[in-house]
Amino acid sequence: MGTLLLNPIAFSIGGLDVHWYGLILGAGALMGLLLAIREGKRFNIPQEFFMDLLLLGVPSAIIGARIYFVAFKWEDYKNNLLDIFKIWNGGIAIYGALIGAIICAVIFVRRRGYNFWRIADICAPGLIIGQMIGRWGNFVNQEAYGGPTTEAFLRDHLHLPSFIVNQMNVAGTFHHPTFLYESLWNLVGLLLLFVLRRQKFLRAGELFFSYFIWYSIGRFFIEALRTDSLAFQGASWLASFINGLWAPMTWFGFEQGYLAPTYGNVRISQLLALLIIAAAIVLIIVRRRTVKDLPRYGDPIVSTRSREVESLASAAPSEQSAEGLNTKEEHTPNEPEKSQAPKE
Description:
InterPro entries: Lgt. The structure is a single chain. 61% of the residues lie in helices and 5% in strands. With 344 residues, it is mainly alpha-helical. The protein has a domain at 144-314. A two-stranded antiparallel ribbon has the order 1-2. A two-stranded antiparallel ribbon has the order 3-4. A hairpin with a 2-residue loop joins strand 3 (169-170) and strand 4 (173-174). The longest helix has 28 residues, at 304-331. It starts with 8 loop residues before the first strand and ends in a 13-residue tail after the last helix. 29% of the residues are buried.
């Protein structure tokens, strides 16, 4: 069977080609925005707030994703600095995108007077649904796939539909559809977040941490299937430790994607996933033990700027009343002096 490729270009306007990848990423961002707006209504947060956050967060995410990728591939860019800006040639990293978006969100949310953790909780389902949908852009572009496998494994073992199996036939060799694995993992994670955010025990920030824990668990196991991972040469014990944690995947018939020994022996995304999981769990425990009166997820969310406006508004009538009273006192005519009784 020959390679069956989908046309990555959805349509053209004049000389401008509009790619499916961009449309799919846009659809993911839109769905994430709608989820955030809907949940934000429960807390009386205006939808314009989330729209502004998205408009600033998307370019920040792209910049962060590119910086992250270039930093670990500096040898390929140090002599061709202009290539750093050619993101249309590929080369972005999801963890870098998250870092860029979070930095932007921290600044923006605080300037609007909200608590970052409360807003991050609301946005967590939107993040994971955006990633769930966005991975299908990799499917159309036939990229970010895993190592070689057999058609029988995809059709008979995983029972995948033909349109996915055929698209994973790259130059005559079938590959693991890692985009699909991650997309399905995120779908389960989305449902999990929906359930968690209605639980009374959930505290501020913990839904956001739960998103990172769930996503990173899936990313750890799926990343090892890929053949395009960013990697570095780490200690042999570290590589053995990570490979040992991944070993259960072999029970289900999976094998790690090829990683050239000269390129590295530790996949950066796998190591980062483990660090994020550990950090999130530690933060949940420490915050519960050290932060007094840690708000619950369902508690009201109030902007400090709104409080300032309310304070000014409530103070204004009092000041006007005081001014009126002073004016009245100033214009009150003096009472006539009583005549003194004649002395005897």
